[in-house]
Design brief:
6-stranded mixed sheet; 27% strand; 695 residues; globular; 10-stranded mixed sheet; 31% helix; alpha/beta
Length: 695
């Protein structure tokens, strides 16, 4: 799999579409503005630029790997299929009642997300399974036939089926789905026992609804993409990066598009994890800042932290609890509206606020000259001297400082009665503090001390802001990898083929039944291996097993990684030890005297990738020759400083520059503040170390 030459990674973001082509001579990369009307057109344009840089033809491409925000955007914007949801009588309103939690406790005008399926399209069956899979009320074939006629009369494009306790016994869901497929072979049908066979009806129902809602659109898009690539001479197979950080085939993605949620950000986490392993770093904070959002992820022992639930389509866009919780494997990260295109405004109290609204690629920041009139983070960075107006995106997008100043004055400076430069500083300082707060909260929630982490920054915006974030967070070391501006796209090329199979199987640990667990795990392994084999035939694989466990009476579980082996009943003692160690790590203590429960199991099968070569670290070096002198505003010093401008290509292993400095390249710009110095590393990375620290 990894020996295929000329592999292309393509990441569609809210502002830019990033392309990375791995070929015999290295990497050819580029950024093009995302085309919202025809996202595949930006992919074709970017690949064409990359192959020209690499000196190869479109037909020489051996593999295309793609990540997309199409699923997330369709759910947020409610651009999906006309959908019916079939559930058990009495549970029609579960998705509207939600968990009854108030994510803004004191907001009297709290806005809850509308259910994806209106009440009139939520239909019920008189049937009932028990939690152990026993049939409490059999499904009447006559009622199945009547439901089929109701669906046909409703002119639905897709149907989601989520019945109570179907994770324990899927017979009724399968019976209903088979009848629908026989009557309407072209209809998109999703069943929860396939899409999310886990305990808890709310996330399970949400997940199967989300899958069915976007399936026709995603299948159409992927079919169109493959067809247009072939029309342009690219006959190579196309694979998708799923949200858990692995590759699946286009066919698998079309069947379970809900697994594509956050597929782009997952690529960034893989990118950072690869460099963490190469540099021998056990505790890393991955910081991915693009044009629309910033993503922060913890990477420990060379692997990103993962979760089995994810929240999408938030009504308070970046407020936890305000969205639709789906249960699908995902790289766990915190995401906030802080990107280069994030719009700055003044709130009711007269304070500068940044985001979550974004200028995106259409019209883009004011300085792009594409009709944008509102000030953004990119406009602020331009006015503070951190961006070169003639060398942005390799010179492909000329920037207008005059347009930025007009926008900042009109929307900020004139109201606040301050200068444009002071307003620009306020914008960047606010967005930096928002990101720093998100990082602090994320690490605290995971029981970690952020000061002991090394930051890896990538994405078009991160190298501009990462040094300032490190100052705010007390982090003494930062790595900017090569190709940082298109990090997620490069991360796609470093991802394994993988699949995570999950299953609900409730047991109290003191009643651990090894035989039922072994039978369930055998089914999970068969399912996961089949998906991986579809993309990576004959590849060596690894297997990771996770049990989701809790104390009796608790509402949520924690993941506990266990050795994958055939269990015996006596292994309950080993599982207890593993649970208490994981609980101690998260919460600092264990609870004596409470029973322990296992709710769900997760098994990941992944292809084995080559080991990442170790990098010999440089902590000092020979001063590099600067291109010229430039000025930028150093936030920590609260003043404009004279900085050396250095070409990124000149920062080879052992070359160094003392801050303040600006390191320029085609896809991004790295700001080295006065308190840091940068040293080139053997793998092409930049290592920024706080002055006064040896590491």
């Amino acid at each position: 799999m990894t020996n295929i030459s000329n592999r292309v990674g393509v990441d569609i973001g809210g502002t830019f579409t990033d392309v990375a082509l791995a070929h015999a001579g290295g990497f050819a990369t580029c950024k093009v503005l995302t085309n919202y009307a025809q996202p595949e057109q930006a992919i074709l344009d970017g690949i064409q630029i990359a192959v020209e840089k690499a000196g190869i033809a479109m037909g020489d491409i051996g593999q295309v790997i793609h990540g997309t925000t199409l699923v997330t955007n369709a759910l947020i914007e409610r651009r999906g299929a006309k959908l019916a949801f079939i559930t058990t009588e009495g549970f029609r309103d579960v998705i509207e009642m939600r968990s009854e939690n108030r994510f803004e406790q004191y907001d009297l005008n709290l806005t809850l997300p509308k259910p994806m399926v209106p009440r009139e399209d939520r239909l019920t069956l008189n049937e009932r399974m028990g939690p152990n899979g026993e049939v409490l009320l059999a499904l009447d074939p006559a009622e199945v036939d009547a439901m089929v006629q109701t669906i046909l009369a409703g002119d639905y494009e897709a149907v989601a089926i989520g019945l109570m306790h179907s994770y324990a016994n899927d017979a009724h869901e399968v019976q209903m789905a088979d009848a629908l497929r026989a009557a309407a072979p072209d209809m998109s049908i999703s069943i929860s026992s396939v899409i999310s066979p886990q305990m808890r009806e709310l996330p399970r129902f949400n997940t199967v609804i989300a899958n069915a809602y976007v399936q026709p659109q995603v299948a159409d898009y992927l079919g169109r993409l493959v067809s247009r690539l072939q029309d342009h001479g690219v006959t190579a197979p196309v694979f998708m990066l799923h949200s858990g950080g692995g590759l699946i085939s286009v066919d698998s993605a079309a069947e379970q598009p809900v697994r594509l949620l956050e597929s782009g950000p997952a690529g960034g986490a893989i990118f950072a994890a690869d460099f963490a392993r190469g540099h021998g770093l056990d505790s890393v904070l991955s910081f991915d800042m693009g044009g629309t959002t910033a993503k922060i992820c913890l990477i420990e022992d060379g692997a990103p932290k993962t979760a089995n639930t994810f929240e999408v389509a938030r009504t308070y866009r970046f407020k936890k609890g305000s969205g639709m919780t789906v249960s699908t494997p995902v790289v766990e990260m915190v995401e906030i509206g802080a990107g280069g295109g994030s719009i700055a405004s003044i709130d009711a109290l007269g304070r500068i606020q940044v985001g979550p609204r974004s200028a995106a690629s259409e019209p883009g920041p004011a300085c792009y000259g594409r009709g944008g009139e509102e000030p953004t983070v990119t406009d602020a960075n331009l006015l503070l001297g951190r961006l070169d107006p003639d060398n942005f995106a390799g010179g492909a997008i000329p920037l207008s400082p005059q347009a930025s100043e007009v926008a900042v004055n009109a929307k900020l400076s004139n109201t606040l009665e301050i200068s444009a430069s002071d307003a620009a500083f306020g914008v960047t300082e606010m967005v930096d503090e928002n990101m720093a707060n998100a990082a602090r909260v994320h690490t605290v929630e995971n029981g970690r001390d952020i000061e002991h982490f090394t930051m890896i920054g990538f994405g078009g915006g991160a190298p501009l802001h990462a040094c300032r974030l490190c100052e705010k967070l007390g982090i003494k070391e930062l790595i900017i990898p090569p190709g940082a501006g298109v990090g997620s796209a490069i991360g796609f090329l470093k991802a394994p083929f993988s699949y995570e199979a999950t299953r609900g199987l409730f047991q109290r640990l003191d009643q651990f039944d090894a035989s039922s667990v072994n039978a369930t795990l055998a089914e999970l392994e068969k399912e996961a291996t089949a998906f991986v084999s579809a993309g990576a035939q004959d590849a060596k694989t690894t297997t990771r097993l996770t049990a989701f466990m809790r104390y009796s009476g608790q509402g949520w579980e924690i993941p506990v990684v266990l050795p994958y082996e055939t269990f015996v009943d006596a292994d309950a003692a080993k599982i207890l030890t593993a649970f208490e160690a994981a609980y101690q790590t998260l919460f600092g203590r264990v609870i004596d005297g409470l029973g322990i429960e296992i709710t769900n199991w997760s098994l990941v099968v992944a292809s084995v990738l080559p080991e990442t070569p170790s990098v010999v670290g440089h902590t000092s070096g020979t001063p590099v020759t600067a291109l010229r002198k430039r000025q930028f505003f150093d936030a920590a010093l609260r003043k404009t400083v004279d900085a050396q401008e250095v070409e990124r290509a000149a920062m080879t292993a052992g070359q160094a520059v003392e801050g303040p400095a600006i390191i320029v390249e085609s896809e991004t710009t790295t700001i080295v503040t006065s308190g840091y110095r940068a040293i080139g590393q053997g793998d092409g990375s930049l290592r920024l170390i706080r002055k006064g620290d040896s590491k």
